[in-house]
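> call design_seq(struct)
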């Protein structure tokens, strides 16, 4: 769904306001004028300016072309793209709900294989690439970057 720029601008303004409200509670550093809230506050102001510009742009487009607040994208009429989008949403939900129980390796393999199959990659190639890429990603995060990834059911095989 494509939203009018004014809608996105209003959402950005709301986010900027929430961010500014939140950073007011950050502690101050005695003896310094610039505290931990300076950078997030500046980013919130910049976000608010961008949001205001989007609101103005969206309102101009809406009045000039009698546009809608929201409309479906053109790809939504094509079944393969809709299926791929559905698979994308489903595997992301699966990942969030199952990664701690199944572990990163199994969840990653299912995630990548499902996405490649949705994009019409041949099954053997999709599974092979999913296994190799998941193991490479796991190695990079677990061994090189020292990021603890969940092992899940593969905990007895952890290396």
């Amino acid at each position: 769904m494509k939203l009018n720029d004014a809608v996105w601008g209003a959402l950005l303004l709301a986010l900027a306001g929430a961010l500014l409200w939140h950073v007011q509670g950050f502690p101050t550093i005695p003896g310094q004028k610039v505290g931990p809230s300076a950078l997030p506050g500046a980013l919130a102001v910049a976000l608010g300016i961008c949001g205001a510009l989007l609101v103005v742009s969206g309102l101009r487009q809406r009045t000039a072309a009698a546009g809608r607040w929201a409309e479906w994208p053109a790809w939504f009429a094509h079944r393969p793209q809709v299926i791929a989008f559905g698979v994308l949403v489903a595997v992301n939900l699966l990942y969030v709900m199952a990664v701690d129980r199944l572990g990163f390796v199994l969840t990653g393999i299912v995630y990548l294989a499902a996405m490649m199959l949705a994009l019409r990659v041949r099954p053997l190639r999709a599974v092979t690439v999913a296994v190799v890429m998941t193991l490479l990603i796991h190695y990079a995060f677990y061994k090189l970057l020292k990021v603890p990834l969940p092992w899940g059911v593969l905990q007895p095989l952890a290396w």
